[in-house]
Amino acid sequence: MSQQPTRRRFINWFLGTSLGAMAASVLYPVSRYISPPDIPEAATDRVVAARDGELKPNAGKIFRFGSLPGLLVRSADGSYKAFSATCTHLNCTVQYRDDTRQIWCACHNGTYDLTGKNLSGPPPRPLEEYTVNVANGEVVVSRT
Fold this sequence. Notes:
This protein has about 140 residues and is an alpha+beta fold.
């Protein structure tokens, strides 16, 4: 007994594959959201954060240190300091405030001084401090 292609069989096949494709298009993004792929952190121990003279005294700049943000601060006396720009409370990005001369986390109003020490708010630990060297017109930040 040979099976003749019929309109009913074609419609059943078409609806079945369409339903399968729709389910895959919904489930795949959901599964990628629930279980994101592992992205290895770049093995960066040293980065050029700025050109020398790019920052005015009493100013700060966010830069990329591997896959994480870093904060470069040029203090009022012209010296450079660098810290991890990730707040130790809930991993928000911190910034330098020139009016208070402190590092500030906008998420929960946490503050740090220019040694990275937590002064007020909910941050439980100091910021990680990096080593800063100026060479050949570049401000180089490295882990110690």
